[in-house]
Amino acid sequence: MRQAARRLFGYSESAALHFIAAPTLSDSETRAVVRDAVERGEYVLIYFQEKLGGELGISKTSVSPEFSFDWTLVEVLGVDPELSLGRFGILELQTMDFHGSYKHAVNLIRAELSSNPDEFHHFLSTTEGRSSLSEKMETPNLSNVFKRTFYQMVYKFQLAGHSNCAGGGFAVPRSVWTSWARHLANPRLLEQADGTFVLSHGEDNDALPEGNSWIFVFELDKSNYSRDNGTPNAIKPWRVIKTDAETLIQMALRDSPAQALADGSPIFSVTERARQKIRRLWPDVFPGRRRRTQEGQTLF
């Protein structure tokens, strides 16, 4: 989160940054930290999230929908004699969707916590506990991840272009990014001198996307994982990708379908699949395979 914030607001890695959850402002010690940091000219970001101060967002109008932001980061420029706020940043977090419902897993875990709270942590590390966490959960819903994400991602990247907004970012695990690739015509990532990447589109590979919109791809660092000590895997960045709304629209809505239909095979596959299903329902109208002729052809 801190790395994403520095990227959106343009803070250097060496600059002092105070990253503060909004609810902690009710504490006198936190207030003192904010005052002292502002006086020293250090950066202060207050962040809001559903369970940390509540989500922020834009209100609906007659021509635009209502949107909430997963994380909203707001600069504090001053506190004396009154609060002065600067730019805000938008950061979304999209995890993987799965077929099935979390209800069954939640019920099992809640029951275990209620009946045996002292040993609950140990229970989660057992085979039975890990099994409970995935009760009646099925495979990842790869297509749904992109369908649910794409519209709001493009919309919010457009919002990030406003002068009051420092930038917008989407944080996704590597598995989600991999599932997105086909929807974006399997784009190339062009590495930049600073270690970031650009979502490549077209032949002009030197052209950088406009605005300040980023996709932050992260993965789990399992190098120090131990089932015995209960230490969770650390989250580490994998790719930091600069893009913009127009590039995503072009890739998802123009490039991908154009390439998919280039040889016609997806269209032909629809007819063939329909034929196979109808054959099972109404076999009489499909003559069976006959023996090969002397010429080696197969007649249907």
- What are the secondary-structure elements, in order, as H or E? HEHEEEEEEHHHEHEHEEEEHH
> What can be said about the biggest beta sheet?
9 strands, mixed
Q: Are there runs of 5+ residues with pLDDT below 50, and where? A: 296-300
Rg computed from alpha carbons, rounded to a whole number of angstroms: 26 Å
Strand content: 25-35%
What best-fitting shape do the alpha-carbon axes yield?
A: globular
Query: What's the arrangement of strands in the largest beta sheet?
Result: 1-2-5-6-9-12-13-11-10
Please provide the count of β strands.
Answer: 13
Structural class: alpha/beta
| Chain-averaged pLDDT | 84
Give the domain tally.
3
Q: Residue share in helices?
A: 25-40%
Structural key phrases:
9-stranded mixed sheet; 25% strand; 9 helices; two-stranded antiparallel sheet; 13 strands; 300 residues; alpha/beta
Q: How would you describe this protein?
A:
There is one protein chain. The chain is α/β, with parallel strands linked by helices and 300 residues long. It folds into three domains: 1-93, no CATH class; 98-140, no CATH class; 142-256, no CATH class. It has nine helices and 13 strands. The strands form three sheets. A nine-stranded mixed β-sheet has the order 1-2-5-6-9-12-13-11-10, with helices on both faces. Helix 6 (142-159) packs antiparallel against helix 8. The chain is globular, with a radius of gyration of 26 Å. Mean pLDDT is 84; it is low at 296-300.
